[in-house]
Acyl-CoA dehydrogenase
Amino acid sequence: MDFYLNNQETEYRTMVTNYAREVLSVERDRIDGQGELQEGDISNLVTAGLWGEHFFTNTNWTTKVTTLIELAKESPSLAGFLVDSLAAASLCSNESGQDRTVLALVEEQAGSDFQSMSTVASRTSDGWVINGDKCFVTNASITSAFVVFAKVDNKPAVFVVESRTPGVAIQSEQSKMGLNGLRFFNVSFQNVAVPETAYVAVESEEVMQKVFSYLALGMGALSIGIAEAAFNLALDRARARQQFGKPIGDNQAVQFMVAKMVVKINAAKSMLYRATQRLDVGEAPGASANAAKLMASEACRDVVHHALQIYGGHGLLSEHRISQLYQDQRITELFGGTSETQRNAISKYVIEELYA
Ligand SMILES: Cc1cc2nc3c(=O)[nH]c(=O)nc-3n(C[C@H](O)[C@H](O)[C@H](O)COP(=O)(O)OP(=O)(O)OC[C@H]3O[C@@H](n4cnc5c(N)ncnc54)[C@H](O)[C@@H]3O)c2cc1C
C-alpha cells in the first residue's frame, strides 16, 4: 500500500486500474493514436462511475487524482478530457454542467493573460447575450455545454452555455501535436441568448483560484499517469533489449536513468497527494496545487525523455508507444497554467506569506 492511500482508496485504485487495463488498453490505438474519441468512450466511463455528476460532486480529490492517474496510463487523451470537464463542472450549478462540459476561456489574444478577454455578455430583459470568439476549446464537437468566460461591465464572469444554443458555432479545428484524442476548436458565440440561470458567478479571486487549483491537480495527475506508463515501458525494454550480449538494463548508465525516473515519479506523487489531502480536509490549498503541477509536469518531461533514451532510435518509431507518450507529455507544461505562470503563482504566494 502507498503511504498516501488508505485501504479503501487502494481498493478503489485497483478497480480503476482494472477498468483501464481491460477497456482502455483495447481502445487506446483508436483514441490516442487515430484521435477518434467517441461519445461511447465517455458513456462507458459514466457507467463505470468514473465520469458524470456522481464522480464530479461526490468523490474527494484523492479519489479524483487516483482515477486520472490510472486512466492516463492507458489513455492520456481521455484523462485530459476528464481534467477539463472536472474543472468546468466545478463552475456549474445546474445539471447540464455535470456532464460533457468544457472550458471556453482562452482567446487568440488572451492566453495566460485571459483577463484581457474581449468576449462580452450584456443584460437583456430575461437573461444575457454573449458575443466573442474562443480558441483551444477541447472536443467542442462532442460536448454538451461550454463554461464561457465573458466580461460583464468590464469584469470577467462565467456562463454555462448549451452547445446547441443558436449563435454557438464551431468555426474550425486547430491541428496540433500529441494527445490525438483531444481535438481543439475555434468556437464563436454570436448574439448567443442565454437565460438568467446560465449566469454562474462574477469572477472573483476565490472562484478563479478554485478552478485553476482543480486544473493544476488534474494536470498533475495526467503528468504522473503518462510518466508511469513511460517508466513501465522503459523497464520492460531495459530487460528485453540485448546489446553486447546482455540486457541493456545491466549497464549502470541505464540503471541510473531508471533510478532518476522512479525518484521523480515518487516525489511528484507525494506532492500531488499532499495537495489533494489539504483540499479533502478543507485546508486552504495555498500554492500546493501549483507546486504539485509544476513538479509533476517537469518530472513527466524528464521521465519520458529518459524512457525514450532507453529505447534508443527505436523510440522514435511510431510502432513503439513511447513515441506517442513523448508527444503527449508536452501538453502538461502548458495547459492548466504554463510552468511560468505556476512559478509566478508560487512566488507570489510565498512572498505574500513572507511579508504578511
Ligand atoms: C492541450 C491543450 C488543451 C487546452 N485546452 C483548453 C481548453 O479546453 N479551454 C481553454 O480555454 N484553453 C485551453 N488551452 C489553452 C491553454 O490554457 C493556453 O495555451 C495556456 O493558458 C497558455 O496560453 P497561450 O498559449 O496563449 O500562451 P501565452 O499566454 O501567449 O504564453 C506564451 C509564453 O509566455 C509565457 N508567459 C506569458 N505571460 C507570462 C508572465 N506573466 N510571466 C512569465 N511568463 C509568461 C508563457 O508561460 C508561455 O511560455 C489548452 C491548451 C493546450 C495546449
